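Dear colleague,

As promised, here are the two records you asked about, laid out in our usual form so they can be pasted straight into your sheet.

NAME FIELD: protein one
SEQUENCE, THEN STRUCTURE:
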Amino acid sequence: MTDLITCLSVGKGTWSEVRSVIEKENWGKVFIITNDFGKQKYQPIRETEFILIDARKSLRELINVIKEVIKDKVDGTEVGVNLNSGSGKEHMAILGAIIESGIGFRLVALESDKLMHI
């Protein structure tokens, strides 16, 4: 089973898409990159590993925080990645961590209530 890495941050209405992406596929593990507010307020629908970041830190620091968690915990050689929620800096950190960890990825998003794999 493919694991999922998703961002849960800013963007009106994006938390519901994150929830739907998690629901629409039988993911191995689910990693949610978020801040303290996201971890406190988001109610996961299944077992989830939160990776806490502080967007005020440098891009390099964010990449290192994310990479430290995913490098040993991702099963397989590819992950699904959903970047609908969050900022560009957060997205760059997620992609940077995945690439530096040597993990392949495919983007996943909702389109007409169906999961689209890119």
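NAME FIELD: protein two
SEQUENCE, THEN STRUCTURE:
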Amino acid sequence: MAKTIYVGNMPFSASVDDVQELFARFGEVTAVKFVNDRDTGRFRGFCFVDMASGAEEAIADLDGKDFGGRALRVNEAKERPSRSGGSGLRRRSPYGSSS
């Protein structure tokens, strides 16, 4: 069964190919998605790996392992909770409303 794996504490020098190669030892990697900062576009130090097979083995073997001088944090990705869109409070303009 296909699984998505969270991979954190990655070195900023890592590439998609590096991660693909690391996880391919355990099974079929279908996608590697690096997460970049929305404002700067810089890599944030974590990614998600989609695996068709071998995910459990990869998680068990790679969690805590050194990769580029950093101990990886590897676990099954969890569903992201939906965002509510704010606190429910409306912000007021200091210039008054235009309606």
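A couple of things worth noting about protein two: DSSP finds two helices and six strands in the chain. The mean pLDDT is 88.

Best,
R.
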